[in-house]
Amino acid sequence: MAFVTAPTNRFKMHFKDDVGRPASMECHLDAGELDPAGGGAAIIAAATAACSDDALVSQEIIVTGVNDTPGSPTDGPYSRGADKMSLVLSTTDGTGVTIQLGSPNEAGFAPGNVYVNPTATNIAGLITALIANACNADGSAIVAFVRGYRRRPPRRKHA
Amino acid sequence: MASASTKVTVICKPKRGPRFSIVFHVPGAVLDPNDAGVQAVVFAINLAIRAVALEITLSSSHENTASATSAADYTSGDKGLFILKDVDDIAHNFKVPGIKSSLVSADAESIDITSGAPKTLMDALLAHAVTPGDGAIAHATSARRAMNRKPIKGTGVVIVP
Questions:
Q1: What is the span of the domain harbouring residue B93?
Q2: Most CB within 10 Å of its CB: which of A138, A151, B61, B82?
Q3: What is the ipTM of this complex?
Q4: Which residues of chain B have a CB within 8 Å of the CB of A139?
Q5: pLDDT tens per residue, range B136-155
Q6: Does B57 reach chain A within 8 Å, measured CB to CB?
Q7: B66, A55 in Cβ contact below 8 A?
Q8: Same domain, B83 and B55
């Protein structure tokens, strides 16, 4: 699996007016522009903010990659995106991180298909990958799996 | 400066139903879809679900401390429409929300792009913005106010503040 990176990055500026209504403006920047507060991004952000009575609350650089070998989805008892596996993990700063996986493979659940089995091969591999590489929004590293369970989509009855 | 973390959104296609997203964060320095750590997590996600990952986006955000002008004439719904064209003469529109009323001409429609902040914005877009396919933005065309107000049904009257 490899991702084909888009030829340009998206630069999105988020605004709010004095009563809090959000708005945004977006443009494309050269693929080398990776700092949302530097280079061409900073220049466009300053120039745009100077034309607006809204507050420029944040700006982001978005890099896109397309999977070159996605394969095909498979069928199973939870084959919709609305079927979720929730994984709760803890971080170095003590806060929790919840990651929701749509269309989970049923092999990751304990008997009864309600709770996640952290020793199932694919779940153990995912937890290991998250602990090695992921963090929370504040940048604190993920350190441990806490619990996991299945969430049923609303207004849909099934086992 | 980049944020403390990079938000990774994995867009997946399940066997049944619409596409959905899975979101996780990685350390802020990572903005490469082919980063080994990102790939390891996405690969592990692929094994744990029955859907397939089609696309990922990595987003680095910078927060500002700014305040909106109170009681401004134009708010988020009112845009200043800046139109530029690329080398193939294709128009690219950029809508500035809450356009300053001082930049709009007396007719409440036109924006002068030959001076002041609108010219600075046009120059910035010409110098740094590109087309989605990485083509150059070649020249500034015009700017005007894009109204949020819709004609009132039955009368056809357009509300212009």
A1: 79-146
A2: B82
A3: 0.92
A4: 4-5, 25, 27-28
A5: 999 999 999 886 555 445 55
A6: yes
A7: yes
A8: no
